[in-house]
């Protein structure tokens, strides 16, 4: 009991026993000490907790702009621009220098290139973010590859060298990280793919925490398929139970993580659409059954929903208090209007920044449960789902 009190009052020296307590009680004192293991968060525990709280602060969410160069190329080509470093920089500059963004956005997930880039005037993007009290984050996974022995499923690479990369990213100013793996319902999912996804996320989370970065844990359950919403619920419960099992086994500090789940919806090709109220009900049911209240924030991905749909669904989830901050970490559902307004023209930058603020504010209101959906354009209501979409 004395040990438990010490552990709770001092997360920075978070030591836990490796064995079962009754077995431990039978051992001699030196033998018991030999089985002590250190929690992943190590000396960063206090900082991780405060970083996660800052990202999960009321009325704010995450701007996800961590597209790899290849995926950023898809965004740029949608408005007829070449995928050059200068165009990627111009696009990220537009987003990250938007005045007033920090009121609605608490964190921005960057790709490695952007973390080390500056504006055309030479100001580091990381400093642009800090000036607005927005935490810089970094995508650390190395993408998906086929998983041999599975049902055409994939696994996520990036554990080799991850500790040293995280340490470097921390020095550059990053304070949280993202690792996205996927689970496909039409492919099964197989027990192997779910286990691999969960184990990879847990190893990554422990390594990120050990190097001062709050891990965003993202097992994206893809929208692809014609299944019922109940099927998504069943798969999501299975996936999150394995994720939390392995997070616990890896001694990850739950107070210092953030989750990035998919909302529980019917498959994108299902004959009937679900209402925001139904999506909120199923999604919150899944979260209440699987996510401990120690976790500070749930930051949903948009996954191909239209901008308005993603905002309405988030709003529906915030109609009553939740044990966690329930918010957004959208890429497509924040960027689509911006790209359309910008078209790669310098004279449109101001208009594009206004479009970003409109979306950011709408989602901020949805985080507070106060979004009405009034005055939205038809463009913002257009779905962005693409079958087999890859990041
Ligand atoms: P979407 O909101 O486009 O699904 O992006 C999610 C994501 O993981 C990007 O970080």
Automatic annotation (TrEMBL):
Chief localisation class: plastid
Which Gene Ontology cellular-component terms appear in the entry?
chloroplast
Question: Which reactions appear under catalytic activity for this entry?
Answer: beta-D-fructose 1,6-bisphosphate = D-glyceraldehyde 3-phosphate + dihydroxyacetone phosphate
Q: Which UniProt keywords apply?
A: Chloroplast, Glycolysis, Lyase, Plastid, Schiff base
Q: Record keywords: Mitochondrion included?
A: no
Which GO annotations describe the biological process of this protein? glycolytic process
Pathway, per Swiss-Prot/TrEMBL?
Carbohydrate degradation; glycolysis; D-glyceraldehyde 3-phosphate and glycerone phosphate from D-glucose: step 4/4
Where is this chain's protein located in or outside the cell? Plastid, Chloroplast
What does the record give as EC number? 4.1.2.13
What GO molecular functions are on record for this protein? fructose-bisphosphate aldolase activity
* Enzyme's top EC category: lyase
Q: Which PANTHER family match?
A: FRUCTOSE-BISPHOSPHATE ALDOLASE (PTHR11627)
Q: Sorted alphabetically, which NCBIfam families does this protein's record hold? A: FrucBisAld_I (NF033379)
Instruction: Report the sequence similarity comment from the record.
Output: Belongs to the class I fructose-bisphosphate aldolase family.
Q: What is this protein called?
A: Fructose-bisphosphate aldolase
Which organism is this protein's natural source?
Zizania palustris (Northern wild rice)
């Amino acid at each position: 009991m004395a040990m438990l009190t010490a552990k709770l009052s001092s997360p920075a020296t978070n030591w836990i026993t490796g064995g079962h307590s009754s077995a431990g009680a039978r051992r001699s004192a030196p033998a018991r000490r030999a089985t002590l293991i250190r929690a992943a968060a190590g000396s960063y525990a206090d900082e991780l907790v405060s970083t996660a709280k800052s990202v999960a602060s009321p009325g704010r969410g995450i701007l996800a702009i961590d597209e790899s160069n290849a995926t950023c190329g898809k965004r740029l080509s949608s408005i007829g621009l070449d995928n050059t470093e200068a165009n990627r920089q111009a696009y990220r500059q537009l987003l990250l220098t938007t005045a007033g963004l920090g009121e609605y956005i608490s964190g921005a997930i960057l790709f490695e290139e952007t973390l080390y880039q500056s504006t055309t005037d030479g100001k580091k993007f990381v400093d642009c973010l800090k000036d607005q009290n927005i935490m810089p984050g970094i995508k650390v996974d190395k993408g998906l590859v086929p998983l041999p022995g599975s049902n055409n499923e994939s696994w996520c690479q990036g554990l080799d060298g991850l500790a040293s990369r995280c340490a470097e990213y921390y020095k550059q100013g990053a304070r949280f990280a993202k690792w996205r793996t996927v689970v496909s319902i039409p492919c099964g999912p197989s027990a192997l793919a779910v286990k691999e996804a969960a184990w990879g996320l847990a190893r990554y989370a422990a390594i990120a925490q050990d190097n001062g970065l709050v891990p965003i844990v993202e097992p994206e359950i893809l929208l692809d398929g014609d299944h019922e919403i109940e099927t998504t619920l069943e798969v999501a419960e299975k996936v999150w139970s394995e994720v939390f099992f392995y997070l616990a086994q890896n001694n990850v500090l739950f107070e210092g993580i953030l989750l990035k789940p998919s909302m529980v919806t019917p498959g994108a090709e299902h004959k009937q659409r679900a209402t925001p109220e139904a999506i909120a009900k199923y999604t919150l049911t899944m979260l209440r059954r699987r996510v401990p209240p120690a976790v500070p924030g749930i930051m949903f991905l948009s996954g191909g929903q239209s901008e308005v749909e993603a905002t309405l669904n988030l709003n529906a989830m915030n109609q009553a208090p939740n044990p966690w901050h329930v918010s957004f970490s959208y890429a497509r559902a924040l960027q689509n209007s911006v790209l359309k307004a910008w078209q790669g023209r310098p004279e449109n930058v101001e208009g594009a920044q206004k479009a970003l603020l409109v979306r950011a504010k709408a989602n901020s209101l949805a985080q507070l449960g106060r979004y009405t959906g009034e005055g939205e354009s038809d463009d913002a209501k257009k779905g962005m789902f693409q079958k087999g979409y890859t990041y």
